[in-house]
Structures are given as structure tokens and as C-alpha cells.
Amino acid sequence: MTQDAIHQAFEIPDTRKALKPTVFWGISEEIPRSLGALLMFLSVAVPLCLWWGVSSVRIGEEALVSPRFLPSPPMVLAAFGSLWERGFLLGDTFASFFRVAA
């Protein structure tokens, strides 16, 4: 029995309201350029901020998550620079790639 049939059988008034058409509900419609740009920016900014926030939370003297498992963005950039300067970046990148691909 459908919801409409139940409403009719028990004389329940239908109080459901449909959402007004917006950019978010149109499946085959184009996303406006400004909204697309905002969504692209947020898709990078929100995870970066969450990463930075979680990696910097401290409980007393200790980090919530060990920097060994979740280094902060500045730590990653420092390691990137160090690997680049010493010439290890490309070799280490290929080694990691082949480990994952194997």
C-alpha cells in the first residue's frame, strides 16, 4: 500500500511539501560557474583544514594523533623540500608507486 493510499484510507491530510527547484536538485542542469568554482575551492580547502586541525590537536603534552601517522601540512612540505634538495624525491615516489601497484 502506497503512502497516498494510506492517507486516503485513513483520511489523513497530506502535509508533505516538495522542495523548491534549486541548482542543487536539478540533475541534468548546468551548475552555475560561480557555484562550481566555490565547490572546487571547498573540496580542497575543507579536507586541508580538517587535516591541519586534527594533526595539531594536543591533549596535554601529547598529540591526539601521532605525527608518524598523520603529519601536519607544514611537516609534509618540509619533508618534500628536504627530499627535493637531496635528490631523493623522484626515486622515493617511484618506489612508493611500485609498492602500491604490486
Describe what this molecule looks like in 3D.
The protein is built from 4 helices and 2 strands, in the order H-H-E-E-H-H. It has helices at 3-9, 33-56, 73-86, 89-101; strands spanning 58-59, 62-63. Helix content is 57%, strand content 4%. It starts with a helix and ends with a helix. It has a two-stranded antiparallel ribbon. By secondary structure, the protein is mostly helical. The model has no long low-confidence stretch (mean pLDDT 86). 1% of the residues are buried.
Largest sheet: 2 strands, antiparallel
Tally of helical runs = 4
What is the CA-based Rg, rounded? 25 Å
What general form does the structure show? elongated
Mean pLDDT over all positions: 86
In short:
57% of the residues lie in helices and 4% in strands.
